[in-house]
């Protein structure tokens, strides 16, 4: 039984059709990540769920209740905003207790809940400070604390880590994950960063132009993308996509399953570059030595490809090389971009 | 390349010279207020002298300064308060319940401020006369309120718009209804804007001369009326004039020092950032 | 969303301003079309356009228009040019900058009545005034300002009052000048004059337009300085449009003619207001 159910949700802003028919069932305790390029509608959908925008048509049900037209404050949802949206004139304590105060919860209960959340987020020494006196990371935690204190049915996160610097982002990501394990709360998390999506999600929802392209666990999306878009969106660097007639030698490895106007997909780790015999001739265009990984950009038959390997490479830019394709890592797509076949994976 | 030190010195001197030159008349007014009448018309002008406070007392005795001051205070404060009470809800509505016509209405309100007062002089005079309100504080207060209303609406609108929308959404998510949103979030965050708007309009009403001179005289006259009466009285009067003027302008000039930014916002209707 | 609440909140302000705008306007329109003299109550014949004709053919009319244009033009020229120069002077930090700014701003907050008398007596008196003493110091005969050059005297007073306004606007605008752009220009070899001409001046174009328009609107209504010092004279040498209308209204009590004049002034102000509103509107989100 779905805890949070979206049924055929549409949203129009004047003439612009932003959300075009979204159906989604979310289970209790799941950590769902909405991911997609800018303008795909993921934040809009989150705001529709939150009640900050009106749903043009469709239904929204939470724990059996129809909340489609209910005001935000009554939906029993909490949101962590991208810019934190803390009340600048209130202390951390007041920020976190505001909702409870409005709900007329008795003072001692409020004190207990806030103290507990503050401890979980290591905010106890800062309870009397105002947001102005806090660092970005601390403000972020207050925003999360404000949501936790309410113990809502669903947590909503709107790109909460975008405003943090890289180091802090990594740490906070881990903290959010730990919190989720601890609280077991249902969460919807919007991001454009696929690393966050892959590491935090129980299931990932990939959006494009207001529709869902695919829903699945992170590894399902990685191993069996439903179409070209998902295939290239998930995974860094992107999957190499080659038109069927571009590199005949590669296409031949598909055992005839590749349609005439279709596409061949292989992830960087499925390409091997070496100086010796075998494979197709190519030229090194760029080497990116990342330490643990090495990315080799090559050009084969006029097509730019990226290969990845765990070892360092003695190759240099301009070297003539041989590029080999691992046939067990082939993905096949038809002319419309829909996936036909995926490699069998060991799960 | 850091600037030439000579250039900086020259510039500093130039700035100070310009400032002192521009401020000189006010400084001179200040000094004259503390001179005797004879000292005030001394030729060549006196810069060093023994200061006296006799003028301030004289002004009060001669023309009941306090009455005029009281009138100025009442009309400025009352018009500002009433104005804020009318303007704040309107600005709130325009900032948070925007419609397609909001912008046009705001522009229209601003345009009423741009009409020359002289265009309304006769009708207002005739109306006041008919209602028996000539030389009354209520008529003057009403006129001040209406004159400053557009500026108040505009400035309050700006300060409401400065509140980030996400904070209001957070309040909504926290369960705040409209009233709670206003009371706990909007009001505390807009108090600064309210104060500076009020201050600016207080200044504008206090300094207002056109209506004060035309609608009032002995009973409801403001300080503007009092000062105007010194246009050409008999005998020596410069020191007293200076004293009266100083008392009339000092608080406002000081207020002005503190409300520079609001001035720019308010009087240019935000057209200059 | 409740449609009544927003309208209810706006109603008092909208109604008040609507009345404030329409009632005087309609009354003025009516007055301008009738024979109405406050000294001769009861005579309300319809006069058609006679009042307008009378106003325009008043021997003081064209001089008043000329004086108005001269007044507005001179004050604008002085305040804009000096305002820009002063703003540039004060833009970069130097010791005592805060105090200098405060001193520069002060004249704007002085009551126009005080402004008028301060200049009329303490500064411009031909025998005892400060300016007279300065002239004598340089061996020149002091100028009898208000008698010999009344309009210039009024221009001086008004310019003194409004220079801080222009200055403040330009100072504010200069703060938002792109430093990096300046540095790039410097590295490209631009001299100080070139940087001013090609970068600073265009940046100031908008505030200058705003200052000019706002001053046009408010300077049209200059009243106290004239009423208290020269009473428009000698003759009509320092009478502006506003003062002329005032004279007709509250000195000649000819409501009809004065109203015709008032409408004339309103139309003038409206023309400028249209342009100003357009600039403001563009700035509004």
TrEMBL record, chain C:
Q: Tell me where in or outside the cell this protein is found.
A: Cell membrane
Question: Where would you find the membrane-spanning parts of this chain?
Answer: 12-33, 69-90, 102-119, 151-172, 209-233, 253-277
Name of the protein described by the UniProt record:
Binding-protein-dependent transport systems inner membrane component
GO cellular component: a single term: plasma membrane
Q: How does it sit in the membrane?
A: Multi-pass membrane protein
Which biological process terms from the Gene Ontology are attached to this UniProt entry?
transmembrane transport
Q: Looking at the keywords, is RNA-binding present? A: no
Which residues are in the ABC transmembrane type-1 domain? 65-276
Q: Name one Pfam family in it.
A: BPD_transp_1
**Family membership:** Belongs to the binding-protein-dependent transport system permease family.
InterPro entries recorded: MetI-like, MetI-like_sf
């Amino acid at each position: 039984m779905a805890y949070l159910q979206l049924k055929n949700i549409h949203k129009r802003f004047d003439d612009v059709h932003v959300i075009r028919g979204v159906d989604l069932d979310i289970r209790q305790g799941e950590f769902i990540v909405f991911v997609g390029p800018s303008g795909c509608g993921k934040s809009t959908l989150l705001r529709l769920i939150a009640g900050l925008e009106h749903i043009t048509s469709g239904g929204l049900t939470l724990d059996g209740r129809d909340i489609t037209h209910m005001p935000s404050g009554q939906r029993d949802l909490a949101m962590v905003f991208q810019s934190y949206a803390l009340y600048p004139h209130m202390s951390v304590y007041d920020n976190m207790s505001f909702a409870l105060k409005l709900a007329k919860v008795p003072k001692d209960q409020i004190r207990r809940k806030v103290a507990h959340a503050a401890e979980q987020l290591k905010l106890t020494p800062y309870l009397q400070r105002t947001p102005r006196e806090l660092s970005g990371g601390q403000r972020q935690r207050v925003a999360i604390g404000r949501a936790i204190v309410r113990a809502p049915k669903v947590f909503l996160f709107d790109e909460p880590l975008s405003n943090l610097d890289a180091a802090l982002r990594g740490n906070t990501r881990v903290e959010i994950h730990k919190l989720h394990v601890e609280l077991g709360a249902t969460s919807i998390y919007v991001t454009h960063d696929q690393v966050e999506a892959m590491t935090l999600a129980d299931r990932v929802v990939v959006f494009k132009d207001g529709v869902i392209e695919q829903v699945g666990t992170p590894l399902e999306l990685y191993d069996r993308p439903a179409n070209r878009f998902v295939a290239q969106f998930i995974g860094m660097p992107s999957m190499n996509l080659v038109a069927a007639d571009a590199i005949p030698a590669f296409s031949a490895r598909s055992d005839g399953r590749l349609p005439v106007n279709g596409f061949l997909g292989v992830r960087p780790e499925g390409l091997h570059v070496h100086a010796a015999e075998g494979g197709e001739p190519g030229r090194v265009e760029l080497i990116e030595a990342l330490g643990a990984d090495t990315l080799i950009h090559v050009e084969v038959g006029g097509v730019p490809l990226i290969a990845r390997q765990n070892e360092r490479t003695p190759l240099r830019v301009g070297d003539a090389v041989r590029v080999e394709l691992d046939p067990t890592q082939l993905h096949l797509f038809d002319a419309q971009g829909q996936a036909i076949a995926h490699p069998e994976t060991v799960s | 390349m850091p600037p030439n030190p000579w250039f900086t010195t020259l510039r500093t001197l130039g700035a100070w010279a310009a400032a002192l030159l521009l401020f000189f008349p006010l400084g001179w007014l200040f000094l004259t207020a503390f001179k005797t009448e004879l000292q005030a018309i001394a030729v060549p002008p006196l810069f060093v002298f023994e200061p006296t406070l006799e003028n301030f007392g004289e002004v009060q005795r001669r023309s009941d300064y306090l009455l005029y001051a009281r009138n100025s205070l009442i009309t400025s404060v009352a018009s500002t308060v009433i104005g804020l009470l009318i303007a704040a809800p309107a600005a709130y509505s325009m900032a948070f319940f925007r419609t397609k016509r909001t912008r046009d209405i705001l522009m229209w309100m601003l345009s009423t401020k741009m009409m020359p007062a002289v265009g309304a002089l006769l009708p207002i005079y005739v109306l006041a006369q008919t209602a028996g309100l000539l030389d009354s504080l209520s008529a003057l207060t009403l006129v001040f309120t209406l004159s400053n209303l557009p500026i108040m609406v505009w400035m309050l609108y700006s300060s409401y718009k400065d509140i980030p929308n996400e904070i209001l959404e957070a309040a909504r998510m926290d369960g705040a209804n409209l009233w709670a949103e206003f009371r706990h979030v909007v009001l505390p965050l807009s108090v600064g804007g309210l104060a500076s708007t009020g201050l600016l309009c207080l200044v504008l009403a206090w300094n207002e001369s056109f209506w004060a001179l035309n609608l009032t005289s002995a009973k409801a006259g403001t300080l503007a009326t009092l000062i105007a009466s010194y246009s050409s009285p008999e005998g020596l009067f410069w020191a007293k004039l200076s004293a009266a003027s100083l008392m009339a302008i000092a608080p406002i000039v000081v207020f002005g020092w503190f409300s520079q930014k609001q001035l720019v916002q308010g009087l240019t209707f935000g057209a200059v950032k | 969303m409740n449609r009544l609440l927003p309208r209810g909140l706006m109603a008092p302000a909208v109604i008040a301003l609507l009345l404030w705008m329409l009632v005087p306007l309609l009354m003025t329109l009516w007055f301008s079309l009738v024979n109405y003299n406050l000294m001769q109550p009861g005579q309300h014949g319809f006069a058609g356009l006679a009042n307008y004709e009378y106003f325009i053919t008043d021997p003081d009319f064209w001089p008043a228009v000329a004086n108005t244009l001269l007044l507005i033009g001179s004050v604008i020229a002085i305040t804009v040019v000096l305002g820009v120069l002063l703003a540039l002077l004060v833009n970069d930090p130097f010791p005592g900058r805060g105090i200098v700014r405060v001193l520069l701003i002060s004249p704007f907050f002085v009551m126009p009545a005080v402004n008028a008398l301060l200049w009329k007596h303490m500064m411009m008196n031909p025998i005892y005034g400060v300016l007279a003493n300065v002239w004598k110091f340089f061996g020149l005969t002091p100028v009898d300002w208000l008698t010999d050059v009344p309009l210039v005297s009024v221009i001086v007073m008004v310019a003194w009052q409004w220079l801080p306004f222009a200055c403040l606007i330009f100072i504010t605008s200069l703060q938002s000048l792109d430093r990096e752009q300046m540095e790039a220009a410097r590295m490209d070899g631009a001299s100080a004059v070139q940087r001013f001409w090609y970068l600073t001046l265009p940046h100031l174009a908008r505030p200058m337009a705003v200052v000019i328009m706002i001053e046009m609107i408010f300077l049209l209504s200059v009243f106290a300085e004239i009423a208290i010092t020269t009473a428009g004279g000698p003759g009509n040498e320092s009478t502006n449009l506003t003062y002329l209308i005032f004279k007709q209204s509250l000195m000649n009590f000819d409501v009809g003619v004065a109203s015709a004049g008032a409408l004339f002034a309103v139309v003038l102000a409206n023309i400028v207001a249209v342009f100003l509103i357009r600039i403001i509107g563009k700035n509004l989100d």
